[in-house]
Every structure is written in structure tokens, then in C-alpha cells.
Amino acid sequence: MGSLSEGFGSAIARTLRWNGLAGSVLRRIGKCSAFLLVAAVLCLLCGTQAAHAQADLAAGLGVDNPSPNVGDTITFTFTVTNLGPQSATSVFASDVLPASLSFVSATPSVGSYNSSNGLWTIGTVDTVTPATLLIRATVTSPTAATNTANIISAVEADPNPGNNSASATVTPQQADLSIAKIVDNPTPNAGATINYTITLSNAGPNTATNVTVQDLLPAGLTFVSATPSQGTYSSGTGTWTVGTVTAGVPQTLTIAAQVASSTALTNTATVSHSDQYDPSAANNSASATITPAQADLALSKTVDNAAPNVGDTITYTITLSNIGPNQATGVTVQDLLPAGLSLVSASPSQGSYILGTGTWTVGTVTTITPQTLTIRAVVTAANNITNTATVSHSDQFDPNTANNAASATISPTQADLALSKTVSNANPAAGDTITYTVKVTNGGPAQATGVTVQDILPAGLSFVSATPSQGTYNNGTGLWTVGTVTTATPQTLGITAKVTGSGAITNTATISHSDQADPAAGNNTASVSVTVGGVAPPVIAASFGAASIPLNGTTSLTFTISNPGHAVTLTGVGFTDALPAGLVVATPSGVSGSCGAGTITAAAGGGSVNLANGSIPANGSCSFSVNVTGTSAGVKTNTTSVVTSNEAGSGNAATASVTVGAQSPTTTTLTSSLNPSQVGQAVTFTATVSSSGGAPAGTVTFKDGATVIGTAALSAGAVQFTTASLTLGSHNITASFGGGPSFVASTSSPLTQVVNTPSDSLKLRAMQVLAAPVAAQVSGDAISGAVNAAVTEGFADGGGAFVAPNGSGLRFNFAADPDAQPAAAATSNPTDPFASLNGTASGTRNLAASRGNAQSSRVDDAFGALAYAAPTKAPPRPAPAPDWLGWAEVHGAVLNRWNSAGALGTPTTAPMLYGNQVNWLMGLTRKLQPNFLVGVLGGYENFDYRSDALQGRLKGDGWTVGSYLGWMLNSNLRFDAAVAYSGIGFDGMAGTAAATFGGHRWLVSGGLTGTYATYGFQIEPSARIYALWEREDAYTDSLGTMQTARNFSTGRASGGVKVVYPVAWSPTVQLAPYVGLYGDYYFNTDDATAALVAPAIPAAIVLDGWSARAIGGLNARLAGGAQISVGGERSGIGSGFSLWTYRARASVPFSAQ
Question: What is the pTM for the complete model shown?
Fold first, then answer.
């Protein structure tokens, strides 16, 4: 029934306290005693009921992630289950989170949860539905944490309080990540590529996920590439997104970067994120430092003669030192000689120097040993020339580039020489002796050495004597060898001459040489005229007050007119002067001076100056000046009309020049990229135009002699022109600068460009010259022999021998009339190899008795007798003689390896020529008369010849057509002739040269052949000749060499004898072996020697001159009249070549009836 402790006071208080009403009820009970009894009764009832009610509440606690990462949000599930037997009421529970967990939210299935004290006010929990509380919390510490949930109380008694508490432990994951970093080259050169290797390791205990590493390259390093073992790397942010890193399995990242700075650089990699807590952050970062190498290179430059003469050779010495701290590698220095210097030689202490680019490739320069370059050059210009050397490259960074260049300046010596000339008598009579005085002065700044003056007396003067102040004068050459002329002492030459002519005689002296450059060559010539007899005409001279003026500037133009006569005053003196374009009379004109009472006209702004009606006393002169203005740039040359007078007529015209805008002189030089070159090779000509006034601009014209081959515009004072069209031979190439508003035109010295034929092109031509005649000769032999055989076979029916040897074998006359007999009876010879075929073993037999026709000469025809061997055989019926013959023949030739020690002008052991050739021929013969026939033929040839000595090959093929005739002069002698045409295609190569070209060949052949029989042998003496004319087309080979068309002729004359011995092999097959011996003479002409030079044309050719030829073979006749012949021959016996020939032939006679 329950104890008293569960009585009125405690039961009602507990019940009302937990629902918040206990205090109020108790106060009301104390105030209202009327209800005391009722309350007591209720309390008694309640206590009695509680004493008997039980509810076994059980606590359960679970967590969704017992191994979270720090920062993860986890969820605890607190379950209160009622195991009965009664429902539990006024249930309270608590779950206070440990310190390492931070409350996020709570979701109770019933009741409410207070996160501040952990109290869960549940209320009633029946036995069917457990009460649940979901608490979400964030893990804030890596330490393990245990969360405990407790059931605090309920109205009903709990029979098993031991299950009123439950716990759940979370152990956050940890991963000890560490980074190591190395660099493959800690002391690289600036510009070098280095490789950083970052190794990321996990010491555990857990796997690390979503790992990222930060490694952004510092300034001074330029990203090249990155190679992660896993994940990706962004060069822009420096983030390596690694992903998962398993404990014990490191990951790597290799970053390639180019060093762009000379300062020390430190590159740091840091673990920037991991899902797991890292218990040791001290190893999460690693660095690697590079210190780029440095080498302070310094240049100095000296010249052995800072004040040379033009034409002197000077020496520059360039010294390259390394101040350190590291040695320098890959060093190059640029020192291209400027215009005005021509390279003689260059001597580097190490490395090499290239003239065309001016690059000194030094290599390695240590801090101990400086390197030097000595350049010797000839001075070719008179202006100041500065030559600068500059360090153009070093693998190492140079901390002080201010000392990377050095210069040396030369100032060639100059001496302004000037000539003046006077004559003792300007109006001598014929026969007078006059004296010219030539004076050479030096306006400095330097003294002049090696001075010569040219003054040869003109026609009308005869040399008398010469008096030089120093040096010598040669009246034959007119050369005054002056020597040294100082700035203090002029030198003079007096020349005494006798007047032998009449009229005006002008004598001119010119400075022809000085070791020093002359800055003003305009005063290097002086002239004076004399007038012999009569009144001398006036002499006019003009000069500008300044040699050059600026654009729109003004200078004076002075005219001086002299009267060289001794006694006559000149009147009516006058001239006109139309000023050149760009020059006008100034405003005001500034006219000053006079010429007697003459009228001077010079209108301001006008373009002309005139003098009219002036007068000059004897031996006197007059002069006047006018100011002129230059209105356009350029050299203005002013020329007057001739000066005239009343008494002496016309005199001379005067010329004077002024430069408006002050054009600067230029010098043009020309170089070739390849000299000598070969035909078809590209050659680049480089023209350099230099001037003391800056870099000229304009057009340069390149000429081959007088022929323009190209033009190009200058760029920075230089221009290049490339051509591959220069022909074989020597070419004088010049480059002409056309000048401009500020620069004077100039032309380079001629450059002799030699263009040679490529050696392989010469070898290809030699291959053509060697092999083509052999191919022609083999074809000639084939066609001539085939025609001879066709004619022999065409006459085989009636007349002629039964067995007849021919050019390709042995001819059997099976179509002859077997009944034809000679006029006189004959008996078989016991020695005849065919005697046994008549049925008698020995003895003689009269054949005339069995043959009725006595009109034939075939008494010795053994095969004819064969038809009557049996005495009982009836005479056969005569068959009509066939008048057509079809035939076909194949002719092959093999040339053994031929060599001639002097074939190319030099000994060689390599084979000069060898190869093979095949001719296929076929034809048709028509017998028009018993002693006359004609025929046509066609054929195809293919040849392939090679030369080891020339590294060449000539192959080709072609088709042939032709016709022939045969004429039986008598029963033992016949004549044949043929003509044929062949079209040939050639394919040749030698070394790197190759070409294809066509050819045309004509053949004419003829011969006389005799046929005689004795003692069973057939003997055929013959004399034959064939000649070939061939033209091979011009071509351009693969190297660009043009070869002209080639014409040659070749042929063979031969004479000899063949011997045939016929044998009856069977009743249907007759055989006739044969042998023969001939003497051959090969003849050749070739026009290729006129177009080429050695080694293009061999000194010896293959088939040439005398040799012997042996032949042999076998002919067979089959049933029906068909014939087959095979044979071979060996040519060149007793000569230097070995040519083997084989033949196979078949023919079939037939009748058109």
C-alpha cells in the first residue's frame, strides 16, 4: 500500500512541484482550512495509488559519427524507453554536453529541452512509444569526449534504476601532416629553369582528406610547369589541391620555374587545409632558398694607332675580365667593325670570331684569367671611326652592366692639298717659250706624305725643262713625285715649254695621290689657258661665296672676266646665266662691282643674271657679284653661257656649284654570302651605305656589269639582295646608292662573284656522255642484225643456199624447191655428213636419175636429197613459194665493269661504266620480186647503265620504227639496207644531281653478204656498216644547272666470216650450229666537249676504235617452216671493254594466197 513517506504532503508536493503549481496549492491550503479534509483524502488516495505503480525507464544514447573531425557537427540521439508495466508520468531527464562540444540545436519528440542546464522535461512516456531527443553539436576540440544522459525522475517508481543512465564517446580524427621541400639547383644562373620538389607526408593516425597546400612562387621566379603526384596545381593562386593523403603514403608536387632575378629567393610551401586535426602544426611548412650565380664581366678596348692614314692597318685589342664572384659561362661579345674599316684578321685567345656578325663566342671566363680578342683592320675612310665591343650574353647575371661595353676611336689624318697654276705668257706666239708654275699647298691639319701631281703637257706644247722645288718630274708620264708637303712650306713645279700649236691651249695639273685623306678634293685641280696668235677671247670664271648653304640660305655668286690679250681692249663683253632650278636671285639682289660701262641685269627673285656691252682693258679683268638664295635642297650646278666680245669672239663658259641643304658624302660597300658559288645556288649580297651624316635612306641598285639584277630599300644603312639566277662564270657585281636630299650617291667597288658548275652536275653530264653512245651502239647492233636476218630469211625460197648464216643465227631454206637440180648431174660425196640419209651406207649414187628438174644449183643440198632417200617415194607436189615472212627477236647485252685510268683525267679504281640493255624487235617482210623484198619493223628498248666512279646511273627506254630492203645481186651475193627512227626517254642521276630528258635517234645500216658451200660447211663472208645520229634535248638538272642540247654520232664498220655445219637431228627437226669471227671498228663524234669542262667530258669512251668479235649459236628448223635461232657474241676482244650479247629469234613464212 505504500509507506507513509509517500503520504499526503510529499505526494501532492512532488506532483504539483514538477508541473509548476505546487507553491500555489500549498499557499491555498494554508489559507483555506475548509478544503483540508478534501486534500487529505485526495492525498491519501494518491499515495496509495503511487505505492503500487511502477515504470522501468531505460536510457539510451547514440551518436551518428563517433570519429568526427574537429569542426564537424554531430548528432546525439537520447532515447527514453518505458519497459513497463505502467506509463511513466512527469518524467525528467538531463544531458549536459561536455566542454569540447558546442550546442547547435535540440529536437525532442515530446516535451522541451533547456540547453543551458541540459534538462529535458519529457512528461508522460507510455510503454509503446519511446521518447527521443536529438541534440546537434559542433566538435571544438581534438580530445575525446564522453556525453552522458540521465533519467532524473518520474512519478512512478522505477524498479531498475541501473539503466537510467547512458553514455556515448566521440574521438575526433587526427592526421599529422608534414611538408619537406628541396630544389634541384640552389645556385642557378639567371634565366635557368629549376625544379622544386614538395613532399607531403601523413604521420597519422588517420587519413587526411580535402588537403590543400599553398605554394605561390615568389617574385623573381616565372612558372614553367607543375607535376603533382595527385590532385591539381593552380599557378595563379599557388594552390595544390591534394585531396586524400593516406598515412604512410606521401604525395609530391614538382614545380618547374625559370629564374628571372639575380637576388636570393626563398620559396615556401604550407599546408593550408585538412579536414582532420593536425596535432603538430610546426611541420606544416617548408622552404627552399636559391642564390643565383653572378659574374661581373668588364670590357676594355685599345687601338695601337689612333691617328692612322687611310689604307693603314690598325690593331684593336679587346680584353674581357671577370670580377666575379662566380665564373661566367656561355659568354659572347659583339664587335662588328663599323663602316670605314675592312677586316684583315681576328685572333681570339679562346673561342671563335665571325666576320659577318661580329660575334666573338668566348665560352667560359674565369675570375683568374681574362680573355682577349685582337682584330686587325684596314682603314678605308677618312672620317672619325668609333669601334665598340659589347658583352652580348652570359649565362650568369651581371650585377654591373655599366662596364659591359668599351670603345676605341680613331681619327685618320687629313691634309687639305690645293693646287694653283699660272703661266708666264697667256698670249704667246707660235715658237715662243712659256713657263707654267704649279703650286701645291697644304691646308692641314696634318702634313701630307707620298704626294704626286699629274701634269702632262697638252698637244701644241713641247717640253723643254722642269724645275721642281722638291721631288722629280717625268715629262713622259707627266708625274711630279712631290713627297712630303708640310703645312708651312708649299712646293712648286716650273715647267718650261715651247709653243708649237695655235689657238687656245689649256694645261691642267691634278693631285693624283696623297697618303692622307683630303677633306676638300674640289681644289685638287688647276688649269690655265694660253691663246696663240691673234686676239685672245675673254675668259670667264664663276664662284660661290660658300661651298654649302642651308635651305633658303643666301650666298654670293661672283663672276670674273679676264682679257688675256696684251694690247687690245675688249668691248661688247657679255654673257647670260640661267640659274639652275632651286636657285634664285636674292632679295635684295646685292649686285656689286662692274665691267666697264656694261649693263648688269639681276632682278630680285629672278632666275637669271646677264652682262651686256662690258669692256676690259688689255691684260685687265672685271668682276661683279650678285646674291643668290637656295630654295630647294641638293647640289646646284650653275653654268654660264660662253662669254663673248666684239674683238675676239667667244670665250669659255664658267661653272660653279653650291650645296643647298649640305648633302653628306656616303660610302657603299658590298659583300657576298657565298663566293665562289655554284649554278642554281642562292647568293645573298649585302650592301652597306655609311655616312658621317647619319644612316642614309633610299634605294640601292644591284648590277651584274651593266645589267640591273635587283633593287631594294635601305634599312638602318644596309640592304640585302638574294638571287639564284647567276649563270656560269664570273660576274662583276656592284651596288649603287642613288643618294637623297641629305646624302650623296655612291657606288661600291666591283665584287667579282664566281659561279661554278656543281660537281655533281658535271658528273651527270659525264654519265650522259659515257652511257648514251653505248645504248645507241647496242640498239644499232640489234637492229642491223635483225634486218640482216630478215632479208636472209626473205630470200630463202628458191635460189640461195638451204642453210645460210645471218646476223642473228643460221638461216634454213626449207621453202626451196626439192625438185630443182643443177644442169650437170652430181653424185653424193662419201664424205657428206648427210650421205647416209639416202638409204645407202657408202658409195656413190646418181641423183640426177631421180630428179627431173635440172634448173637449180642445189646439187649439194643434203636436205633436198633427203626427200628422195627411199627409192619407192613418189615425187611431192610442188608447193607455192611463200611471199611473206613474220619474225620476232629479243636482243640482250651486258657490259662488264669497264674502267679507263684516264677517263676523267685522273686515275680511278672504281668501275667507270657497266650495265645491261634489252631490245625487243619484230617485223614483217614482203617479197615483191624473186630478187627484191621490202619490210617494216618496230621495237622497244630498255637500258640501265651505272658508274661507280661517277656515282651515277643512266637508264631509259624508247620505241623504234623503221623499214628495210633486200636485193639479191646474184645467187651468191646479196645487199641489204635499213633506216630506223627511235624516240628515247632518259632518266639520269649522279650524286645529288638528277634530270630527265628526251632524245631522238636515226639509224642507217647496210651490208653485203656472200654465201658459199663446201664439204658440208656453209661459209658466209660479209662486210657491214651502221651509223647512228642522236640528239639529246637540253635540260636543267635538280641542282639548277642548265645543260645544252647534245648531238653525237656513232657507228660500227665490220668485216668477217661465219662457218655453219648443218646436222639432221630428226625427221622434223634440223639443227645448224655456227661460229664466226669479225673485226670491228667503232667511230664516234660528240659536240658535248664544246660546252663543258673536265671532269664533265671523259677522256676516253667505251666503244671506240678497233676490236674483234666472236659469235656462236644454234639454229633450228621445225615442221611447217618455222625457225628458231639462239646465239651469243663477245665484243671488245683485244680492246678495253667486254660486251656480251645474246639473241633469240623466231620467224614464220606464209603466203597471202
Answer: 0.40
